[in-house]
User: Fold these one by one.
Assistant:
Number 1:
Amino acid sequence: MADGQIVVSGLTKQFRRVRAVDNLSFTVEPGRVTGFLGPNGAGKTTTLRMLLGLVAPTAGNATIGGQHYADLPDSLRVVGAGLEAASFHKGRTGRDHLRVLCAAGGLPYQRADEALEMVGLTPAAKRKVKGYSLGMKQRLGIAAGMLGDPAVLIFDEPANGLDPEGIRWMRDLLSGFAKQGRTVLVSSHLLSEVQLFADDVVIIAAGKLIRQGRVSELTDADGMQRVRVRTPEPQKLLAELKAPGTAVQTEDDGALLVTGIPAAAVGHAALVAGVELHELSPQRADLERIFLELTSGKAGIR
Amino acid sequence: MNRIIRSEWLKVRSTNLWWLMLIGVLAFTAIAIAFNMLTGYVELNPGTNQGVPDVSPESIATNLYTSGQYFGTLLAMVFGILIFTNEFFHQTATATFLATPKRTRVIAGKLIVAVIVGVIIALITTVLAVPSGLGFLASQHVDTFLGNGDVLKSIGLNWLAFAIWAVFGLGLGALLRSQILAVIIGLVAMLIGQTVIQIGLGLMAHYFHADWLNKVPNWLPSGASTIMTSPGGANGIAWWAGALALLAYGVVAAVIGTVITRRRDIS
């Protein structure tokens, strides 16, 4: 069993009327950032809570390095987790929150200061959490996860409430963790986020697995090549773009979106037509669109 | 186990709870001392009160030395309730159970902290009540009774009361989980529930000619507490039976609360 590998198999959770997680199976590998993606209410948080022994599964299994979380002798040294930005006592300082966890996990108090330093919260260490912004609470949650210097990191929606700079910081931090060989599992309901910081992605909707794979595979598998091209004389260019299988759409800003031929072929067509080009850019398949297609009709309120 | 006790102790120390408790204990004890001195003065100087039955100086001394027991035990119980229900009220249960996945250990740690705090409250009230009581009795030229066995026993039982009420509160909190509900039920059980039930049972006993119903209130938490803190027992029941009854309430509530907490989904 690979150290730090997360294995979810046949995991199911039935709340009174709702099957929040339905026979879900996937694996998460060390050394990579895995995005756990799904619309709101897809069962992401319930899955993570089952993985962490907080919610009892109705059926199935979830293990970390081959063990159930509750059986880990020194849980904080093996797995670091941050689940909700709201789950702090508002009248306690950030530093004391971490110290309480250090004490429970058998870690020296010094780890609390080191973790605060790592997430850039040292100036706010002795302030009560009620004075923290959402972004600061997210950082405190990450710091809590880092206390035991664990091989596995699990964060639920860590980018919620972060500003663009914070999101970039988060991306660098997570990919840094993965480069050190740690397992990093991060949930999100926003594709743009996952696209930013994940290597792999597990997509679920309505509690079921939709797709698991590398982010790059997923976008390439879309197969549709699209090229965006802008010219002051679109009609002349259009006349040259007549190859079979080629389709052209006109965008709102007047640019043409060409499907079916590579960018080089579009450039050649422009040369033949003798038109001036202001833009010629191949478009990467948009994960957002794939995501919406994959999960359409499965999201929403259950 | 040491880890969890350290962690739970730090939880108490790192919020407003501890000094709010301290202020409460100091204030209520001061009020109780003043009240007991006043009644003691009235009772020791019969000239100022006609018709009040004579009270033994010994029981006046006991009262003084255990000043603050009534509200102090109440605070100990509320403290017990709060250290458990805070985890859910402030949603810190997630972090707590991630750090200590064995939930029974968490509750055991809280139980020990509750007992420690109960004893600390007892220590504070005793440190305030005994010297001030001694001073008062000396000023009234009355024996201090400090060498008296029953008086010393009362002081000891006073300490026991604080610890057991804290355990009772923790059990109640673990059982109900809702902070507001647990505090209300705890206070009602301690303050007015006893009287209401006593009157109700008294009426029923009269109506059904079932005399045993009159004995039931002795075994309710606050009745048991009264018996526990009387060195000679009360209503024909020994002090230790009262202590065991109150402890049983706390332990049963804590055990059921533990079973529920172990199974409960933390979300």
Number 2:
Amino acid sequence: MIYFDNAATSFPKPPQATAAVLECITAWCGNPGRGAHDLSRRAAEKIYEVREQLSSFLGVGAPERVVFLQSTTMALNASLKGLLKSGDHILCSELEHNAVLRPLYALKKKGVTFDTFPVLGRTNNEIVQEIATRIKKNTTAVVCLHASNVCSLSLPLPEIGAFCKSRGLRFIVDAAQSAGHFPLDLRAMHIDALAVPGHKGLYGIPGCGILALGEGVTLAPLIEGGSGVDSGSHTMPEALPEHLEAGTLPVPAIASLNGGLRFIGDIGIPEVQKRARGLFLAAKDRLESLDGYEIYEKDTPGAVLLFNRRGIPSTTLARLLDKAGICVRAGLHCAPLAHKALATPEGGAVRLSFGLFNTREELDSLWHALKHAFP
Amino acid sequence: MHGTNTLREKCIAAVGSMTAAIKAQRTLSLNGISSEIVALDPGRTRRGCAYGVEFLAEDERAVRATLRGGNVSVSEYIR
């Protein structure tokens, strides 16, 4: 089986991550913060170590501002619903995933308004200008992805962050496709809330999302519940991270991040980028050697390749490849506005997304499968 | 500094959570002060279940300075 769907979740996981999970569930998987007995305390200390790793990796500056939730989607919901109130206006890019769009549609019913800003075909400065021209008196925040889950485009976070800071706007970032692939620095990029998945570019197992918060950023909790402290109070504890972490943490998934981060750290982000970009270019070369294919955003410097065979629905093409043992993702990729902006057909397109375990030989197999399907 | 000793007077720095307790313990350890994470009797704090780090009372002045310098928020010191 060949797996080209790493934008959905990375596969396989590195031995460091699986070993960390095994050690967790066999040696120390107590409930962190629920009692001070040995197993609970050891679990809490292991979780704290991962907060420290992430704080350093993401440039947060304080481990307690690394909050563990169930997913990136939950981290984005917590950010948007915790920061925005009725009467606020927010800007988002035209490439956003439904993890941003659907909370915004839900907030619209509560009096929050939003507009999108275009990014395709723009330079970094032009993207900032597109944001600037859409600012209203009641604009309080900008939310955008770092790297698209649909195509190879990424957005200039340092420039957008600097602009937001200069205008006193909150800056919320969806790093679902960039964490582990691109350098991220919350403080240097002036990010207020950064949503990161554990199971994609950080090579952990599914079950854990990360919300990293800037200094002084306070959110209303998305959910309330047990926290292990302040049990007599009717509200969540004030201190981070417990303020936002109601209920038992996904301890094995967090443990896997310890291994995943070591795996990424040993390779280094520049090498990760180089390998993914190499696979993107090699895949593009192979597709361009065949007749009848359209590749979207093929000249932007990322590593997610979106394509179609003209006249063939994307789901049909993905099914043919599946039968040849090649896993790809077809359709709209939970990002309908992005597909509209890219002018893909109604049925969307086929996405190839690469991981550190993919090889060029696997791309040869893709080429042969396509050649065989459409001789 | 001294290690914890059951025969000597102890003091507890109460903090907001287990995460804060671990941060406090590590901050103290980096400064050569030994401490132990403890769950506090809900009746001893204003809001119920809480955690703290227990240390020798004679280290209190150093502990206060170290935790303040390490940005660890202590709700109260309990003797």
